[in-house]
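Quarterly update from the structural biology core.
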Amino acid sequence: MGKQWSATVGRRFTILYSAGFLGSGIVLLALTYLMSGSRRTGVAPEQPPPGRTGLAAAEQQIQDLGRQLADVHAQQSHQLLVGSLSALVVMAGVSLLLGRFLAGRVLRPLRLITAATRRISAENLHRRLAVTGPVDEVKELADTVDGLLERLEASFVAQRRFVGNASHELRTPLATMRASLDVAVAKPEPAAQTVALAGRLRTELDRVDHLLDGFLVLARAQHGALADRSSVSLGGLVREALTARATDITAKRLTVGDETRPDTWTRGSTALLSRMVENVVDNAIVHNQESGWIRISTGHDDTGARLVVESGGRVLDQAGVDRLTEPFERLGADRTGSERSSGLGLSVVAAITEAHGGRLALLARPDGGLYVGVTLPTAAVSGEVTR
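Predicted structure, tokenized:
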């Protein structure tokens, strides 16, 4: 839309300037042609009276000179007309070039503002256009955009701060409720209903705690505070995630194809990258069918360090898959394992990937299941190595 708008405005300015220059040239040439012309007067031939033969000959010569002057004037007028038309054609071309140049100069500040605005996203709202120069309409527009960015930044920061603070504050009552359940169950000979109720409440408390933990990680990833950067092996993170979920993999009788390479290195926050890999692996396990399969691979290519996790299952709708990076989005209520999912897994993966300058690809496999591809910047292995 931006390019089309700019091209349309530039075309309009070019036509406007060209029409103005060309119209001025036409008026100038027309006035020059009209003012250079003169009225031609003819000398009527007279019959010389008798006895005035010499005078008649002189008058005849004057008439001949008048006709010659008239012919010369007509020829000059023709040449002037041809020259004017040629000059008009040249001026038409020059006016187009000049109009295009002036339109480009007029629209250049707007193009700079558009390019700078496109480079600003939710992760770098602190950047400003900071247009310098005289106080004119263009600077007023840039200052207005800067003011809008400032308000958006304040809103984003307040939202992330609220999520983080609320998640921290809610952990205290959760811990209190869990302690109360432990006290009730620890009493001598507790009632069977009390034990069953405590078990159900513990399960729900674990889900809420897991949800709050997801909120905290999501807020940290979206904030972009990655002070603890180090070289991290994606293959090592995958092995840790698979080891931690070995019981669930066995319970579902899943076949895991591990094609990870230990030399797949990237750089970033070890805690966040570990959570990213855990969420991708957990998503492939939880939302899989019994006796299904998972294929995990890591490696390098021209785009960077890659992590690919594929899982089997039913055929999914790509439009629904595209929404999985949004919080609490699921592919239908009947999706396997959705009752144990917080709905933040892949949104956390997307936020962590973006915070590390990477890309996330979610694709519905043609024969069923989900393809998750994470591409991160490649890191050279140095003395500072994690996992």
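Residues 1-6, 38-46, 333-338 have pLDDT under 50 and may be disordered.
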